[in-house]
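Notes, Module 5: Reading structure tokens.

Key idea: the token line is not a picture. It is a compressed description, and you learn to read it the same way you learned to read a sequence, by spotting repeated patterns. We will look at two proteins. The first is printed below with its tokens.
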Amino acid sequence: MLTFLKASGLSRRINIALVGNPNSGKSSLFNVLTGLNQKVGNFPGVTVDKKTGTSTISENITANFIDLPGTYSLYPKRADEWVAYKVLLQQDESIKPDMILLVADASNLKRNLLFCSQIIDLKIPVVVALSMMDLAKSKGTQIDIPGLERELGVPIVSINPRKNRGITALKKAIEISVENGQQVQARDFIDAEQLAPSAVAEVKNMLPAVSNYTAIHFLINHENFLLDERLQEQIEETERKNNFNPTRTQAEEIMQRYARIKHIMQQTVVESDPLQKSLFTERLDNILLHRRWGYIILLAVLFILFQSVFWIAKYPMDFIDWGFGTFSGWLSGILPATWWSDLLLNGIVAGLSGIVVFIPQIMILFGIITLLEDTGYMARISFLTDKLMRKVGLNGKSVMPMISGFACAVPAIMSARNIENKKERLLTIMVTPLMSCSARLPVYTILIALVIPSKIYFGFLSLQGLVMMLLYLLGTVMALVVAWVMKWFIKSVERSYFILELPVYRNPRWKNVLYTMIEKAKIFVFQAGKVIMIISLLLWGLSNYGPPEKMRAVTNSYDAQILQQPDKSAELTRQKKAALLQTSFAGTLGKAIEPVIAPLGFDWKIGIALVTSFAAREVFVGTMATLYSVGEGADETDSTLRQKMSSAVRQDGTKVYTLATGLSLLIFYVFAMQCMSTIAIVKRETKSWKWPLVQLAYMTGLAYCMSLLVYVLFK
């Protein structure tokens, strides 16, 4: 550990470990402190993210912050908790923290103080950042920060990272701690030596630099520490000689800590009517977690969610659709008939319209999901579904990654690290991509609008919204079916337990809801949007160019026909554009795969969209926008994509997008993998190509078979 130099005037760089309970505001503080000076990697040997960043603390001090995974205590169970644990115990070869910055949630102070007290007893310089003070005040909780500071013996600073409050004071507290170094030490929170007096004394003789409490952890977990063989044997012998019982020691420690925490809470924290709040929560839980009504309410919540996605978003989407159609028509009227104007209209504008039009739906979906999380209902969904999950080989902890899969499978799969049981974690990873992510939403929207009538029943029930909900439920049900099948093939002897803290119900933070809606829209526009635009421009090139001799032959043939039949020039011009598109590189690719997808009711244009959307599912819409724009006549450029797809016909004159084809394509996108990023993250999380390849194979096969079945039934 670095011994700090006092008032030396020398510039120095220190390592600060940023720790805290999950959802305590740690990541927000890390982002504020480090800004753009961040790097993301992996801790050696594990798939846990390592986020590091630099920040200037004062003129003489620069800090390297390491954002460690959230954890509730210094007794690790999950892989990410082990990562944080080893760093804090100075047992990670790559990171040796000189100081700890602990973020504690003021609205859940009692729970956070357990971890805080353990960190204090490690005897590493620590500063506590108290977050969520606004939420604590809204709950009627008053905290005497100076009194809490005296009780704990460490600096405490109230912060609000989102409003950039308290950051200057926090840096000053860090600077003072650096200057004081080892001279100011917090007193012991508990008397760790009394937990195992003889054993602790012997470990301290072997390792004089460690604290009494750190010695306890060497006795419990020395097999996982960076110790030579001689030390390992000596500690093992100490355990045997003193009949050291890790389980009993841990239990006694936790009891001592909570007794001290209870005293501190009585001295420094005033809560308003905790009994009344508890009674309200219990009464509400009696309804929302009821064995019958609970599931009915859950289905009603999901029904309202998906109805809202169509009902509320319809008006802004229609306006955006109309705006792009009008703008495209206006541009086509003033621009010359050159290649660059065609690129602008049918490449850039068409691709851009396929991005912007879906922003309202994405914002509404994530806004409602954030509301469910903020109010505390999302945790109830996990509790409610645990019994069902266990029947298919999962548990309640699998629910959160699967629900997160409605947003994006990549972070959802990463969040499965919280599942201790390896079999349940693997099963969760394997089925999470079946949950309909936000990338599927644009595909669902355009296809449902094409083949499902816009009917309202009973004055509020939208048929299109109902179909949307059924698609989401279909993916969820199939995920459970696949998990049930796979549990017989993936063997494990581990037993799993589901322990969940149900938060109190609270009013949603509307600013947080709005912030999340805007952020998700920005992510869609600037991340997915970039992919869509690049593929739209690439497709424009592939759709406008082809084998020179064949393209020239088509052009000469139709030009001759137009000269011979000038009265049919408009119709022949449209036929010429369609023929050139089929002869282009894009058309050649589509025609090559058409025999494989024709049994599903798909034509060659849909085939191209299936290929391009493997980069990202939402690219399907941009692909169709480009292909149909290239294939249209100049007098139809003001048509919307929906109108163009609705009027699309095959060579025999039949409509492309019938009910059978539309439903077949919807089902295909419900089940197909179609996402390179998901494959990459599954490989990273499982450390093997076996499971992502199995996932790709079963999802593609499932999508093809189910799509074929639906097409045959509705044809």
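Here is the second protein, with the sequence above and the tokens below, as before.
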Amino acid sequence: MRWSIALLTLLLLSCATSSTPDLYCRGLHLEVPDRTSVPARAYLGILIKEADTDRGLCPQVTGLLRGGPAEISGIRKGDILISLDGFPVCEKRRGTPSRLRDLVRQTPPGSDVVIEVLRNGRPLSIPVTLRPLPIRKISIPALTESCPEGPSLLEEALRRNGKMETFQKVISELRVQSLVLHNPEWSDNPFQRSIFSRMIWYPLRAASSATSLTDRLRKATGPDSLFRQVAGMLDIRVEREDCERLTLSRLLSLMEDTSRNLEELLQVLTPDQRGFILRVLEKKDISAEDWNRLLNLSLRVDLRRLINEIYPLIGCFNRTSLEDLRKDILMRFGRPAEGILFEESTPYGTIIIAGEGPDTHRDDAFLIIDLGGDDLYLNNSGGSRPGMPLSVVIDYGGDDRYISREPFVQGAGVVGSGILVDLSGEDIFVSGPGSQGAGLLGVGILWNRGGKSVFISSWLSQAAGEAGTGILLSEDGDTLYRTGLYGQGLGLSGGIGVLVDRGGDDRYILGGVEPDFRDPEHSTVSMGQGFGRGVRPKDGYSGASGGVGVLIDESGDDLYSGDYFAQGGAYYYGVGILRDISGNDRYIGGRYTQGAGIHTAVGVMIDDRGRDSYYASYGVAQGMGHDHGVGLLMDLEGDDSFEGRILSQGACTDGSIGLLISASIKGVHLNKTEGCIGVRMQSP
């Protein structure tokens, strides 16, 4: 049986005294059991699409889960399913609920059934034994409740309208979905992060969970402390160590140790396998065969060890240590006006120390330290390379230009680690894919402390993480971020992408490269701006949980422009968070955007202060949960405007929760729609 709930939650808040915990307690808090027994459930193990037949729209097999009941029984890709034990499974209208799914769920595991199929137009009857759905074994810690006694506005509304049982069943179903294995042959789900499990088990706390997480990230003063927080999001703990006084000798020693350790760690991959990974990650589209191979290769790399190997070096990337390094270099070389002060080839790559004048860096390097000047970088600029798993650039000043059409540059760790630090100046960054703070089976960090800056990249850039972590920290000035596809705080499978911008009137432009198949003439895929994306198993693609994507902007009147899949959204077991702290902001999106949780995912969008406008040209947006997803949009202060289309502003579909919490919309009433609950609330 299907259960759905949409909570169109419109709270009139007293902003001078309200906080997220107060909002949660007064508006949303409900006593939800900390533990839910997971009932045994049958599954068939097929991927389907709708096929037109003379019997209606029937499920056609597009893929089979390895080792599943359907594959074992002899069902094949391309088969059209007609009935299960004599019960028809075809539908009359597109987009209607799946009879096949309901029949399978209602059948006890271990049951023998007969499935009628059409194969090349010929009817066949195939006996199938339905096996139990593979369930992941995890422990979700109980949350300590701190709210005062008494019902919240949501609880009162649900009880008044007889919907409490429906709500409890939605929560139970979300928890079951969070435990499902995407690949039955796995004994666990190596890509699913605990932050996703906690948020989907306690969806009404999504706002407070996201606020707490982003507050910790905001407190980070440099890559060292930010990296520690991001490692925690990967469920990896690194021990905090105070960096010794950083000198050139100390830095080189740390880099050599790190490079040697990374190379040893990566010996699990042959040179051909590493080359394959680089070739695949450079593509916009990945075939099923290449994706499955990439997935399996990524599991060979010990991410926990990789994070701990790189941390001693990153732990020295803070303002104090880098100033100590500068003083040490000046003491060694004096205060030169310009030119290359030192250059040496080493087994790890070239080391270059440049003076305060303008320089052009053309060749890839293991380490570049540039003391100032308006410099031009035409090289890897802190991007790892085959044979050079670590690369670092530290530029102390000047209006610099980092220009490259190559992939994996400018703070990119791809099967390795790359770090780019620019400590002042108005800079321009232009790159190919997989760049500008991209960690792809590795760690990539870009720290920009300059003024007005421009970041332009083709795709998979600007804080993108897959089986690794990508970080972009930008601290001052009006900034333009532009990426064609995938980026600006994107967490792919097994990865974390975090973009933090401290201030300025910024523009985030994402999309325009890849047409979306739903409306290819008018829409493109964005996939970013605080977005977590997984891969649903289909057409030969192995499924994998999404990662965690975070975008935080602390101040300024900002513009966010995306299209499909953007702005605090998530897809398939991912978590996406966009939080803007202050400023009069504009959010422009298309579909699956602005706090949308799509296919068992959690999307959260929070704007703390300012007069803001939200526009979704298609919809499925603005606090929308779709197919066992959790979507939340919360705007805490300001005279705001919201415009959306279909399934917007606290909407939902099958088994989901959608929340819109706003200070600017007044009114209290309950909208009843089929299969969903729409609740508008106003605080007393």
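Summary for the second protein:
- The two ends are 36 Å apart (CA to CA).
- DSSP finds 13 helices and 46 strands in the chain.
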